[in-house]
Amino acid sequence: MLLIQSLGGDRLKKILEVQNLHVSFSTYGGEVKAVRGVTFDLFEGETLAIVGESGCGKSVTANSIMQLIPKPAGKISEGNIIFKDIDITNANEKQMRNIRGVDISMIFQDPMTALNPTLSIGHQLMEGLKQHQNISNKKAKEKAIEMLNLVGIPNPEERLEQYPHQLSGGMRQRIVIAIALICEPDLLIADEPTTALDVTIQAQILELFGKIQKETNVAIILITHDFGVVANIADRIAVMYAGKIIESGMKEEIFYHPKHPYTLGLLHSIPRLDQKDDELIPIDGTPPDLFSPPVGCPFTARCPHAIVACEKMYPLRHESSLSHYVDCWLYDERVKNMKQTN
Amino acid sequence: MIKYIIKRFLMMLLTLWIITTLTFILMMSIPGSPFNDVSDKTSNEAVQANLESHFNLDKPMIVQYYYYLESIVTLDFGPSIKKPNDTVNDLLGRGFPISFELGIISIIVAIISGIILGVFAALKHNGIIDYLAMSIAVLGISIPNFVLATFLIQQLAVNLELLPVATWKSPSHMILPTIALATGPMAIIARLTRSSMLEVLTQDYIKMARAKGLAPYKIIIKHALKNALMPVVTILGTLLAGILTGTFVIEKIFAIPGMGQYFVESISQRDYPVIMGTTVFYSAFLIIMLFLVDIAYGVLDPRIKLHKEKGD
Ligand SMILES: Nc1ncnc2c1ncn2[C@@H]1O[C@H](COP(=O)(O)OP(=O)(O)OP(=O)(O)O)[C@@H](O)[C@H]1O
Ligand SMILES: [Mg+2]
């Protein structure tokens, strides 16, 4: 559906465009090239899942959009971030403060540490609102209660007076979500929002994301290392590896027609309820080090189908549909021809 | 809460009793009596015996201990032995307000400047301000207050004649003693605030506060400092005790007519009622201060419950 609408052009608005983003950190050991040319876009009300193993640059990408990468060690060395037609790549702190929490919000992985232990839930909910809107205490409180209702927290009025330690992990993550949504942002970046929670709570929180999106039409970037998490709520999926998006497509395309051997590997390593005997096959090996990433495809060393070209040169993009592309030599016509002649 | 306070109060009484009893034992184990000062030509055997019986010093130890406890309970420590015109309560009434003023001003100066120094050092981590602040802190910790006091008098009062040399008459008189007394604790607070602040600034909730688009001062004060102050509050008790004993030394150097001089004199002169009175008074004061520190801790950190409730 989204595809058709995006083809149609102006029915859905593009709210975020990340173009050729490069982010690196200078450390004692040298320069870590954490993100190496990431490009994607996002439409109103859409959910994009960014999936990849630990350390592939998902959080760095997310933090770059919010300009929350630790400075001066980390910097955006190349590329552009365009939010609602405005280039915010070089926005200063003051400009970013008016975007953070208002237009773009963020949810962090661990609800146990994301809330300040010394401030009440009410305070933490309302302070963003008061920062950005000229609003009376009474109105702020009403809004806070409305948000707590939205995220499914019983007795919201009592909760406002409570402190984080008085709530369970799942409850805290709901609070964090309420905080993120209270100024009605257009974009919500959720960085592994369920990783720290146990499985039943995970499902509830994911369900909540679906409900919120229906009610507020917020666009969501959902970051996860777990394909299982994205199955229900993502519209599109971008698979990241060693600082690059190596495959991207609609959810169905990625699930039913995965192209990149890495995506395949990830899909094989999720447990499936319908195929009990299926063995989980973890991907052998480890990602390349990002101090000196390989010139060719970074997955070569772990790839069961690697050919000579993989090591020599980064693959040319292969587009299998208007919404689905993969960076892999195996789909290059010339390679296919070579295989046939062999 | 009420239950907690009552419990704490009983504990405080117990502590006070232990301290006073130890003081009594130590006092009595110092050889000699207030009246056998060899330089005192007027005293002869008869006079001395008379005096001793007047102050109950000839009674058995246990009886003296009883009188001692009685004086504590009634808060009346009787006349001083060496200053016949004053009761101990007179001395306390005269000296304590001055000592209290010196101590309170110093601790407030130490806390405020220590925190400011620590916060700026942390915010400008590894910058010039950081190095400068931490150099001051290291000096402040390692230079004893009496050395600093003499140095300040020499330079600022004698050489530059900027400030009065001694005594406690006007605000300008208070500056040097306060600096001398406050620098050490300030340095300790600054270092602690800095390291604790640096740790807090890496926490997720700070990142979350930034992600909300809060103004920087709100992030630093509301979110970071409140958490960073926790360890500072913990050492406040120790610092208070340090300031308290510090006043004895500083008062002596600056000729400030506080309680310190009576306390020090009373020990060298074995003026038992004054020793008892001041000890009880100081102990009670410190114990109450420590109690207030505990309360402050509970106010800062909602996770610390002063009163234990079931469930929740
Ligand atoms: N502040 C930093 N200084 C130096 N290197 C960093 C910094 N932050 C991230 N990196 C590096 O950037 C790379 C990508 O990190 P990132 O946090 O984006 O991974 P991730 O995909 O979010 O992984 P995870 O699933 O573990 O959260 C890692 O190799 C990491 O070591
Ligand atoms: Mg991450």
From TrEMBL, chain A:
SMART domains: AAA. It comes from the Bacteria. It is found in: Cell membrane. It is a peripheral membrane protein. Gene3D superfamilies: P-loop containing nucleotide triphosphate hydrolases (3.40.50.300). One of its GO terms (cellular component) is plasma membrane. PROSITE patterns: ABC_TRANSPORTER_1, ABC_TRANSPORTER_2. Keywords: ATP-binding, Cell membrane, Membrane, Nucleotide-binding, Transport. Residues 16-267 form the ABC transporter domain. InterPro entries: AAA+_ATPase, ABC_Ni/Peptide_Import, ABC_transporter-like_ATP-bd, ABC_transporter-like_CS, Oligopep_ABC_C, P-loop_NTPase. GO terms for molecular function: ATP binding; ATP hydrolysis activity. GO terms for biological process: peptide transport. Its main location: membrane. Coiled coil: none annotated. The keyword NADP does not apply. It holds the Pfam family oligo_HPY. Belongs to the ABC transporter superfamily. This is Dipeptide transport system ATP-binding protein. It comes from Tenuibacillus multivorans.
Automatic annotation (TrEMBL), chain B:
CDD domains: TM_PBP2. Its main location: membrane. It holds the Pfam family BPD_transp_1_N. Keywords: Cell membrane, Membrane, Transmembrane, Transmembrane helix, Transport. It is a multi-pass membrane protein. Residues 96-293 form the ABC transmembrane type-1 domain. One of its GO terms (biological process) is transmembrane transport. This is Dipeptide transport system permease protein. Belongs to the binding-protein-dependent transport system permease family. The chain crosses the membrane at residues 9-30, 102-123, 132-154, 174-193, 228-250, 280-300. It comes from Tenuibacillus multivorans. It is found in: Cell membrane. The keyword Membrane applies. GO terms for cellular component: plasma membrane. InterPro entries: BPD_transp_1_N (IPR045621), MetI-like (IPR000515), MetI-like_sf (IPR035906).
